[in-house]
Amino acid sequence: MAATDVLSHPRFQNEQAAYDWVEAHLWPNGPVCPRCGGLDRITKLKGKSTRIGVYKCKDCRKPFTVKVGTIFEDSHIPMRMWLQAIALLCASKKGISSNQLHRMLGVTLKSAWFMSHRIREAMRKGPLSPPMGGKGGAIVESDETFIGRKKGVPTGPAFHHKHAVLTLIDRKSGEARSFHIDKVDAFAIVPVVRQNVEREAAVATDEAKHYAQLKQDYHHVAVNHERYVWKIEEFTPTPSKATSQSSSAACGACISSAPKSTCTAIWRSSITVTPTASPWALTIPSVPPVR
Question: CB 3.0 to 4.6 Å from 251: which of 18, 116, 166, 263, for a disulfide?
């Protein structure tokens, strides 16, 4: 079927049909107020001067359309043009340029560039994608780091001169999402986690205080690095000729004056460290679905 045959569908030619098609996909159970979430007390405005697809919520008394909260919001481009652009971008095997959209749709080059960027933004992985850790029982790891250096910020304590980056990793699928955050605190981190992680998933983090709020929404597992990562084994040095000295000579590894040949202290140069179980090797119990 040629592209011209596809674009002959009513939703690509009639503005009311375009709104009806989008509303049927975004609101399968009826209109929903994007501001207060109301469902029942919503009426459609049908005045002669009223724009197409305008509803009013009687709970918050605010008008809205299906464009609010989507890539169509704050755009004066007709809905049918948006649907044509989406169809062309999806049907073009090697992509389509803004110049070609400008020529085919008859819109300005600036409008074509604006539309193509918004459509590609909606297609990328990120907050617009499905939440991580879906279908329940999955584990999403969260941690932050510091990279680079902020321009014009002098070196100081607590990495204030570096850029903070938060990364979420779905342990089952291996998907990773990274976000640049202004500051490592609960106000910057918790909203990102809530926006990108399914409520039925388990969240594994360290014991940082800014993750404490996650206990309200998730099965939260905090790992104590000092307790689970390293274990120092006891060590007794073996006497040798090099360490044979008089009983009055101190070994330097302890405050006693015993000779090195009989000292049982743990020498700093001979400490052996053996890793135990991985900090993330934890068994997460099944999480009941959120009701």
Answer: 263
Model pLDDT for residues 132-175, shown as the tens digit of each residue: 887 666 889 999 999 888 888 888 777 888 899 999 999 888 88
25-29-34 Cα angle (round to 5): 75
Q: Tell me the H-state helices in the chain.
A: 3-6, 10-13, 15-26, 79-91, 98-105, 109-123, 186-196, 225-228
DSSP-based helix, strand, coil % in the chain, nearest 5 = 30, 15, 55
Q: List Cβ neighbours of 225 (8 Å cut-off, separation of 6 or more).
A: 206, 207, 279
Residues 6+ apart with CB under 8 A from 175: 125, 132, 169
Q: What is the pLDDT of residue 267?
A: 30
Q: Is 234 within the bounds of a domain? A: no
Task: Give the domain range for residue 35.
Answer: 3-123
